[in-house]
Amino acid sequence: MRRRDREITDRDEMIEILDKCQVCRLALHDENFPYIVPLNYGVDIGGDNVTLYFHSAKQGKKLDLIRHDNRASFEVDCGHTLVLEHETGNCTMNYESVIGQGVIEFVPEDEKMNALRILMKHYRHEDFPFNAAMVPQTEVFRLKVIDMTGKRRQKKSKG
Description:
Blueprint lengths: L6 E2 L2 H10 L3 E5 L6 E5 L2 E5 L2 E8 L4 H8 L2 E15 L4 E17 L5 H10 L17 E15 L6
Antiparallel strand pairs: 1-8, 2-3, 2-6, 4-5, 5-8, 6-7, 7-8
């Protein structure tokens, strides 16, 4: 990382950012270009393991790409605020972000409800009553994080 002064090395701080952000972008391997897709997600921490959960329809391009190559990169970012420095005529952005890599696996049917609960807990603290008829029609997959890094810029406006 070029800007070491913005690097987040503390795992707990990175997890806090994962908990705060609302959208995770997955980068998947396509033939000529990477394929990036924004998704809702949930975070599960088990000891040293970080797992991100996602859901989708049962078919589509992202699932085809995952079945072909289950390696992926991910990115989340939040805390965006514009910082203006009127005196100098400069501006920048505050932000927090986490990027990383991992391996995707499809969640077995018998684990699907728990995975969906993890996903919904990211957006709602109370238990969400799922429409049971929709669960079999939903694909659920998880990304087991292999590596992640964090970055933060926090600067106050001047002038």
